[in-house]
């Protein structure tokens, strides 16, 4: 499998299956800005709430090929093996398809992901053991705690200033390496001092 980070903002994503498993997959899609459609004769309470809030479009029906023919990404999460396989067989090679019940079908897996603001760490076992992937993600959560959210904001700000600065290419490279030193991770005061060094000195 080839690991990537995918921009799905405003892309049509279809979840086939209205149960809790499909609902759990909807959250990350919505957070990424996708346009989510759910196709299922019945939907769980979570999907009902999302539909009421206008966050997802729901088609209360048995799935047909026309429901996902133009979808960018498809997640197949019904409790019927036959339905899941039929949907997969009717998708095109240009579509991204994940079949929850069978990791050998489809062309992408959904990794266990840890999010800390702009930091995302994903763990995949290529379908061998999703349980282990989740355990590793949770272990990483203890190392990369909530403090990394503000730390990444500082690093982003520093990088933007450095990129736009008049420093030489070599100086920029050195500053970027310096910006991730531990002293800046643990001290807000040192972060402010570092950022201040990057700003041009106004002539008197």
From TrEMBL:
Gene3D superfamilies: NAD(P)-binding Rossmann-like Domain, SirC, precorrin-2 dehydrogenase, C-terminal helical domain-like. Its EC number is 1.3.1.76. One of its GO terms (biological process) is siroheme biosynthetic process. It catalyses: precorrin-2 + NAD(+) = sirohydrochlorin + NADH + 2 H(+). Keywords: NAD, Oxidoreductase, Porphyrin biosynthesis. Residues 116-140 form the Siroheme synthase central domain. GO terms for molecular function: ferrochelatase activity; precorrin-2 dehydrogenase activity. Pathway: Porphyrin-containing compound metabolism; siroheme biosynthesis; sirohydrochlorin from precorrin-2: step 1/1. It holds the Pfam family SirC_C. PANTHER family: SIROHEME BIOSYNTHESIS PROTEIN MET8. This is precorrin-2 dehydrogenase. It comes from Peribacillus simplex.
């Amino acid at each position: 499998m080839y690991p990537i980070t995918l921009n799905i903002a405003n892309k049509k994503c279809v979840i086939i299956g209205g149960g809790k498993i499909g609902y759990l997959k909807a959250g990350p899609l919505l957070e990424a800005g996708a346009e989510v459609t759910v196709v299922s004769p019945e939907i769980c309470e979570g999907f009902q709430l999302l539909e009421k809030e206008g966050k997802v479009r729901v088609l209360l029906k048995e799935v047909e090929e026309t429901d996902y023919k133009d979808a960018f990404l498809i997640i197949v999460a019904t409790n019927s093996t036959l339905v899941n396989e039929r949907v997969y067989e009717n998708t095109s090679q240009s579509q991204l398809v994940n079949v929850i019940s069978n990791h050998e079908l489809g062309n992408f897996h959904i990794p266990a992901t840890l999010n800390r603001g702009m930091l995302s760490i994903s763990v995949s076992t290529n379908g061998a053991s999703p349980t282990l992937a989740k355990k590793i993600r949770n272990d990483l959560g203890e190392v990369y705690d909530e403090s990394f959210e503000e730390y990444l904001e500082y690093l982003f700000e520093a990088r933007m200033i450095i990129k736009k600065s008049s420093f030489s290419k070599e100086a920029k490279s050195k500053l970027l390496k310096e910006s991730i030193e531990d002293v800046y991770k643990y001290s807000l005061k040192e972060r402010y001092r570092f950022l201040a060094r990057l700003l041009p000195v106004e002539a008197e």
